């Protein structure tokens, strides 16, 4: 398989881990094959070994096995393949467990001194959850499985909270669908490395920042998207322009639900 171009002349080093990462692409069609308990235990244990901010381990994941809940998640996400995933997780940032632990140590969690609900902890807990999800994803690919990360389940995060019974001091982060691939999508191109990696400081002009964009636009246009084979893929810059004014994201505002879940993101 041809890996994505690294955007430069320097040869890359290859080993099985690096090749697993370079050849990763989202999989959205799975065979019906169930995954063994050993695979599940391995993936979940790998996720637990991800780094954790201040070792607070402030994330959890719900393994969704109930077909009815899977269907409801697919409905929220507007993506039928969510329901077909042999293994499905929703990762959540979780200060609920730590609040309970703190209370067991005599800490008052109901007053201003309690800071697990702060914006800093919220973002660090989210980072923890994403790193754990990504470790699981990479491990799954290394076992010959395929995955898709699911932000679509946040289309209605409040419904997700209700559906999964997510308590105070938790907030859903992302879903991860895992299974044996039943499709072989093309590798999606990535922008030139020079557009994303800068030395010592951020580029001072848009001209420098965007050099390479035209070539990347052409590459993206040529990508064959299995999700919509009827129409060519838009150039990257056109995709960004559309997303830049997507009013639908305003319906996904984090603040009100985070507040309902007990977070105090103004602190
Ligand atoms: C935070 C995040 C949310 C995503 N949400 C979805 C999703 O809801 N549904 C989906 O089909 N793909 C989703 N994806 C996958 C991206 O569409 C995909 O990674 C991107 O188009 C690049 O393609 P590739 O993974 O094949 O390289 C998500 C990826 C990330 C990182």
What's the average pLDDT?
95
Quick one: CATH class of the largest domain?
Alpha Beta
| Main sheet overview | 4 strands, antiparallel
Radius of gyration: 20 Å
Considering DSSP H and I runs of 4 or more, what fraction of the residues is helical? 40-55%
Distance between the termini: 49 Å
Q: How are the strands of the largest sheet arranged?
A: 1-2-4-3
Shape: globular
Identify the bound ligands.
Answer: flavin mononucleotide
Total strands? 4
What structural category do the secondary elements indicate? Answer: alpha+beta
Question: In DSSP terms, counting alpha (H) and pi (I) runs of 4 or more, how many helices?
Answer: 12
Give the name of the CATH superfamily of the largest domain. NADH Oxidase
Give the second-level CATH assignment, the architecture of the largest domain.
3-Layer(aba) Sandwich
Structure, described:
Keywords: Flavoprotein, FMN, NADP, Oxidoreductase. It comes from Bifidobacterium angulatum DSM 20098 = JCM 7096. Residues 22-180 form the Nitroreductase domain. GO terms for molecular function: oxidoreductase activity. This protein is α+β, with helices and mostly antiparallel strands and 267 residues long. The chain has two domains: 16-185, NADH Oxidase; 193-222, no CATH class. The chain contains twelve helices and four strands, in the order ααβααβααβαβααααα. It has helices spanning 16-22, 37-48, 67-77, 81-84, 96-104, 119-142, 157-164, 193-196, 206-209, 213-222, 236-243, 254-260; strands spanning 59-63, 87-94, 146-150, 170-179. It starts with 15 loop residues before the first helix and ends in a 7-residue tail after the last helix. It binds flavin mononucleotide. Flavin mononucleotide (FMN) binds next to strand 3.
């Amino acid at each position: 398989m041809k890996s994505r171009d690294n955007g430069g002349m320097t040869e890359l080093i290859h080993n099985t881990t690096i090749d697993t990462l370079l050849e990763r692409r989202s999989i959205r069609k799975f065979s019906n094959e169930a995954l063994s308990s050993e695979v599940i235990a391995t993936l979940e244990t790998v996720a637990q070994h991800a780094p954790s901010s201040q070792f607070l381990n402030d994330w959890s994941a719900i393994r969704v096995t109930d077909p009815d809940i899977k269907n409801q998640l697919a409905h929220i996400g507007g993506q039928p393949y969510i329901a077909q995933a042999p293994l499905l997780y929703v990762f959540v940032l979780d200060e609920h467990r730590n609040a309970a632990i703190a209370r067991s140590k005599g800490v008052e969690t109901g007053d201003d001194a309690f800071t697990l609900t702060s914006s800093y902890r919220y973002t660090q807990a989210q980072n923890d959850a994403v790193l754990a999800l990504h470790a699981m994803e990479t491990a799954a690919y290394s076992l010959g499985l395929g995955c898709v990360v699911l932000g679509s389940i946040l289309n209605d995060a409040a419904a997700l909270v209700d559906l999964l019974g997510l308590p105070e001091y938790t907030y859903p982060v992302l879903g991860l669908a895992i299974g044996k691939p039943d499709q072989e999508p093309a590798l999606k191109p990535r922008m030139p490395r020079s557009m994303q990696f800068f030395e010592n400081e951020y580029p001072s002009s848009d001209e420098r920042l965007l050099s390479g964009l035209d070539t990347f636009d052409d590459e993206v246009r040529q990508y064959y998207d299995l999700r919509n084979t009827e129409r060519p893929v838009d150039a990257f810059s056109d995709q960004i322009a559309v997303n830049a004014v997507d009013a639908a994201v305003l319906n996904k505002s984090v603040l009100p639900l985070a507040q309902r879940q007990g977070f105090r993101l103004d602190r």
